[in-house]
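User: Can you help me understand a structure? I only have the sequence.
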Amino acid sequence: MTNYIVNNMSKSDKKRLALCVAIPLVTGILSAFATKNRMADFDLVAKPPLSPPGWVFPVVWTVLYILMGVASYLVLSSSAYKTKIDKALMLYGVQLAVNFFWSIIFFNLGEYLFSFVWLVLLLFLVVYTAKLFFDCNKTACYLLIPYILWIVFAGYLNFGIFVLNK
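Assistant: Let's start by predicting it. Here is the structure, written out as tokens:
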């Protein structure tokens, strides 16, 4: 099914999709690069129950960034009013920037409480982004649901790390 859809896309649509997926992936790569020297420190902190092994995080984030990119493509390509699309994509960009800085606050600065508050801000931004995406393309909204669930789980982990490492 996916091959059928991609094969029937115009060359410009394929380029637009690739760019939409590349933007969050590059954001994630830059974030990982900015925090890579702090991962050894992270291994030393006490973590709450249900903390997954370290290899899970890059796998999950890669999937989430791809879903975000596809969702943004669906919004960009939707037949909604331009003002709705622009507003949805603007907020999408803002939440992506907030997402990027969370890693720096958490890993590089070790500010666990502030990073938790920052994560709550991110959650609200992503939920609102999903609502705006829904107004443009319902599937785009649904593609953000795993992201929202992961942020909630990350909030649990972040707060647990704060409590266990005060």
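Now, to help you interpret it: The chain has one domain: 12-40+52-164. The domain at 12-40+52-164 is CATH 1.20.1260.100 (Ferritin). Let me know which part you'd like to focus on.
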